[in-house]
Design brief:
This protein is an alpha+beta fold. The chain is built from eight helices and 13 strands.
Length: about 270
């Protein structure tokens, strides 16, 4: 299916929910007309969850707020909240147009900041569900896949720079990468060391949505208030920060050996 067909499929699924199906479908059409990227992401994520046999179902009337879907895996339920970045927003923040135009400057820190802010903004919805939570962030921008995967490291560690130690005799040791944790999403310094924060979402799924599917990349919170295994999303490459941090050495790793994005296709169900 194309993205448009996946959207139509999702609307039909909403229509089949009794007794409120027609009302839910009508509300979805309004969201699609008012902010197409958000509605497209909602449909794409639901389709993904359905294909992965996670039994997605509406958790709450979208007009009343709260998390969007509830899923189940291995006897455990978890909630999924869906949000999206508009193409114009990504273009303005990244500095790259929404069309392939060859090599060019990309403001990656601004995109990382956008993801971090969205996680904070969506904390309100997370409080309505007393179980593990997942935040799915979608974008249909032409280079969304590159932006999402390239920014994972600094998203977890903050803005990095080349550093070296000096003494009165000059350079001491080798140059190395260092960070003051500026703009790090989940870790911040304290008087005693480091602490984690923004614990509402155990996992973040980044959906780079294209005409026939999506590329999916994941991020793991180091210490969420409601932990969730990555088993429901076994084909997704997740980046995680080794926690707790030892000897002030931040280690970011992929939890699969070959960190390639999980390619999802909109297939007929």
């Amino acid at each position: 299916m194309t993205l448009a067909e996946a959207v139509e499929w999702y609307e039909q699924r909403l229509s089949g929910i009794n007794p409120d199906g027609q009302r839910l479908a009508k509300q979805f059409r309004k969201r699609l007309a008012a902010r197409s990227e958000g509605a497209q992401a909602e449909a794409a994520v639901f389709h993904y969850l359905e294909v992965k046999n996670l039994n997605p179902r509406l958790l709450e009337d979208p007009s009343r707020g709260g998390m969007d879907f509830e899923c189940s895996f291995g006897g455990e339920n978890f909630a999924v909240e869906v949000t999206a970045f508009g193409r114009d927003t990504v273009t303005n923040r990244s500095g790259y147009p929404d069309e392939l135009s060859g090599p060019g400057y990309v403001n990656l820190p601004s995109i990382i900041s956008l993801v971090r802010s969205r996680i904070s903004d969506k904390a309100v919805q997370a409080r309505t569900y007393d179980g593990p939570r997942v935040l799915a962030i979608g974008s249909t921008h032409v280079i969304a896949s590159t932006l999402f995967s390239a920014g994972v490291h600094e998203f977890l560690t903050g803005e990095a720079s080349i550093a070296f130690n000096v003494s009165s005799d000059g350079l001491v040791g080798d140059m190395h990468m260092a960070t003051a944790l500026k703009n790090a999403a989940y870790v911040r310094p304290t008087s005693d060391g480091l602490e984690s924060f923004r614990p509402r979402y155990a996992l973040v799924l980044l959906f780079a949505i294209h005409g026939g599917g999506a590329h999916v990349t994941g991020i793991i919170h180091p210490a969420p208030d409601r932990p969730l295994s990555i088993a429901p999303f076994r084909n997704v490459p997740f980046a995680r920060l080794e926690w707790p941090v030892k000897d002030n050495n931040l280690r970011v790793e992929w939890v699969i050996a070959d960190p390639r994005v999980d390619v999802h296709y909109f297939i007929h169900i």
